[in-house]
Fold:
Amino acid sequence: MVLADQPAGVAEGVAGERYCQVEIQDRADVEAGKVAELVCFDSFAGLLSSLGVAPRAAMADSPATMAAESWPSNALAAHYDGVGGGGSYVVVVGNDCNGGGLNLPSDWNDRIRSTRHLRCGTIKHWRDWGYQGPSETTGGSYGTIRSLTTLDQQVTSIQYYA
Structure:
């Protein structure tokens, strides 16, 4: 991956932050306890390239400041380890928002503090694997960022709805 022609305004990455993507799992896989696999990058520009978004088109210095219309069409949501969309993050990609979701891998388990709604307007965060235990639902229009309250840093599995 070549980042040499990256324009000013697109972050190289903040020390210690990781920018990841994960593909949504079907409900049966989540309920069977299968864990989603992350692909991570040290820079925001690296993640954008992997998603097929030209860094020049996005012109953002972080996932939190990226314009909602710049996200790829298969981006369902983004989850952050900071409040209000800050810190490291993982973008979830898929084809629909019909109740599918994922079990978070160990390096993201109990880490999520906020969620950006992209294609999915309702997102249900669960404390335990396989959509079990207490849950917290966030809702919002495209681009809305919501910080978690009752399950702040306690999320293990997530479901996505329209």
Q: What stands out?
A: The first strand starts at residue 19 and ends at 23. The CA atoms of residues 53 and 72 lie 7 Å apart. The chain has three helices and ten strands.
